[in-house]
Design goal:
It is a single chain. The protein has 137 residues and is mainly beta. It contains no helices and 8 strands. The chain has a 4-stranded antiparallel sheet with strand order 5-2-1-8, with no helix packed on it. It has a 4-stranded antiparallel sheet with strand order 4-3-6-7, with no helix packed on it. The termini are far apart.
């Protein structure tokens, strides 16, 4: 006996499929957790995203306080609503100040930028992002 499974033409990842979903340009970060590893070698940047149908793109960067980027990862077509990339850190003293920078992208346009100060091997930083009016496309 053969069982045939049919997949829906429009897979719904989040929420009510009948509810209006924001266009990809308006996907936003709703909250974040910046989790420096206790050994000072890495940091995990977890973020919550608004519901989406088209996978959004984002850059996550680690920068020095003067803005010099020391690590960066680009996620094109994020597959989940709570992505959490882990980035290796350069060798720095415990407690050294860094910035986690999350940028939601639409093409070459940065639609939202969230900047979170943190310390190497420091405490977890967790917060909600203030709601802002999404820019019109």
């Amino acid at each position: 006996m053969v069982t045939i499974f049919h997949m829906a033409d429009d897979i719904q990842f989040f929420g009510d499929p009948e509810a209006p979903q924001p266009p990809p340009a308006d996907v936003r970060v709703t909250d974040y957790r910046v989790m420096p590893w206790p050994d000072g070698t890495r940091v995990t940047v977890e973020m919550g995203l608004t519901p989406f149908r088209v996978f959004p793109a984002m850059d996550v960067s680690i920068a020095m306080p003067d803005g010099v980027v020391v690590r960066q990862v680009s996620c094109v077509g994020a597959l989940e609503r709570r992505p959490a990339p882990t980035l290796h850190l350069p060798r720095l003293d415990r407690g050294a100040a860094l910035l986690a920078v999350i940028e939601m992208l639409h093409g070459d346009d940065v639609r939202q930028r969230v900047i979170v100060p943190f310390a190497v091997a420091g405490p977890i930083i967790k917060a909600s992002v203030e709601a802002d009016a999404p820019p019109s496309a």
